[in-house]
Write a structure and sequence with these properties.
The chain is an alpha/beta fold. Helix content is 27%, strand content 9%. The protein is built from three helices and four strands; from the N terminus they run H-E-E-E-H-E-H. The strands form two sheets. It has a two-stranded parallel sheet. Strands 2-3 form a two-stranded parallel ribbon. The chain is elongated. The relative contact order is 0.22. The C terminus is likely disordered.
Length: 138
């Protein structure tokens, strides 16, 4: 994760500016010990932060995840301000840089399954439809 205040569950792993790098160095070294390349997947869950967790629930709009009777499973999002957007872009850059410092060969930016960037790339649409078996903007 790129933001310590936006987690998908207890014990989420965050590589931000204040994270200790040693555990990530050890993970990269262990993963590469057999000669493989290793990439870190980085993400921001956006509006998919469980309702019982402290922290921030952000989205391109304030529209929550619609899961019918299970919609309360996630916190109610707050529409991001331009400043929060800029800070989040910086968080992705920081996490990518620190992953390289730890010895990872690259990063994959998770931009699917309803996480923050999946909504940003749909032009800010924040409605998710499950009635057709896929996520789509309205």
């Amino acid at each position: 994760m790129v933001h310590a205040e936006a987690l998908t569950g207890p014990g989420g792993v965050v590589l931000d500016a204040s994270a200790l790098l040693d555990p990530f160095v050890a993970w990269a070294r262990a993963a590469k010990s057999g000669g493989a390349a290793v990439w870190m997947q980085i993400n921001h869950p956006g509006r998919q932060v469980p309702s019982g967790l402290p922290g921030v629930v952000w989205g391109p709009t304030d529209r929550g995840v619609d899961l019918g009777r299970h919609s309360g499973r996630f916190g109610r999002p707050t529409a991001m301000t331009p400043g929060q957007i800029a800070t989040t872009v910086g968080r992705f850059a920081t996490t990518a840089r620190r992953a390289a410092e730890a010895g990872f060969d690259g990063v994959e930016i998770h931009a699917a399954h309803g996480y923050l960037l999946s909504h940003a790339r749909r032009g800010g649409a924040a409605a998710v439809r499950f009635d057709r078996g896929f996520a789509a903007a309205p």
